[in-house]
Amino acid sequence: MESNDIKYVEIVSYLFPDSCKVNNGECGSHADCDHDKTTNLVKCTCKTGYMNTGSSYNVTCTDSCDVNNGGCDVNAICSHSTNTYAVKCICKEGFTNTGSESNVMCTDTCHVNNGGCDSNATCSHDTTNNAIVCTCMTGYTNTGSGSHVVCEDTCTINNGGCDDHAICSHESKTNAVKCDCKKGYTNTGSASNVVCTDACQVNNGGCNENAVCSHKSSTNAVKCICKTGYTKSGCSCNAICTDSCQVDNGGCEINAICSHDSETYEVKCT
Q: Which Cys-Cys disulfides exist here (predicted)?
């Protein structure tokens, strides 16, 4: 009796083999075939990296990356792990993962520590590949090299391009470089191209025609000194030089005649 039972089981096993061993139970190449524990019916389960886009009775396994980008962030690229084929989300160029390895959240890199740019630079994106571009703000110059942008105050580099006799500073509103001639110099160029010339060489520094233009030793400000034979009168900051003989008779006696030496132009009383 026992031998007959064994023979019967062998015949049944031969006639009705495990469905999963025949064409993978019709589950398809991207699914694992198994049996329901209750009914023993074939059960198809999509492999890692694939998603069922059919139904529970008609399992269709589609690459997860082809379904809603694999659940990745809209700014991420969906791919697969080489070892497990599990979905792997990688942020696109110009975006940084501010989530975790298992929950990738892609944020504009410019919004994360200014994209790694210098604190005096503006972070933006290349229009071709969306890569980070660091551009120095107005009033700053890039002293770095290649893609490493280092922004320094333009005034600290070759005096900001200003004339040697100019002071480099910045506009209060735009921070653009501003060149102002130093004391004792006058701009003979333009507002955009400042050329600083010794003020004494421009209209005698504003001094009277009978004065010599020079500079104060302490501040280099213009100083007007009356030529020999002339006396300063009026406001000291804009001296008007008058013939000395016309001021208190040049210092001569009341009954003397004030004149000038023909060679030195010094006052002569006769």
A: 207-224, 226-235
Cα–Cα separations (whole angstroms), residue 259 to 48, 229, 249: 115, 9, 9
CB 132 within 8 A of CB 118: no
Q: Using one digit for the tens of pLDDT, what is the confidence trace for 103-137?
A: 999 999 999 999 999 999 999 999 999 999 999 99
Using DSSP, state whether 260 is helix, strand or coil. strand
What is the C-alpha separation between 198 and 235, in angstroms, rounded? 23
* Nearest of 155, 185, 179, 183 to residue 167 by alpha carbon: 179
Residues with Cβ within 8 Å of residue 98, at least 6 apart in sequence: 105, 106, 107, 112
Question: Is residue 70 left, alpha or beta, with left meaning phi > 0 and alpha meaning psi from -120 to 50?
Answer: left
The CB density around residue 61, as the number of other CB atoms within 10 Å, is 21
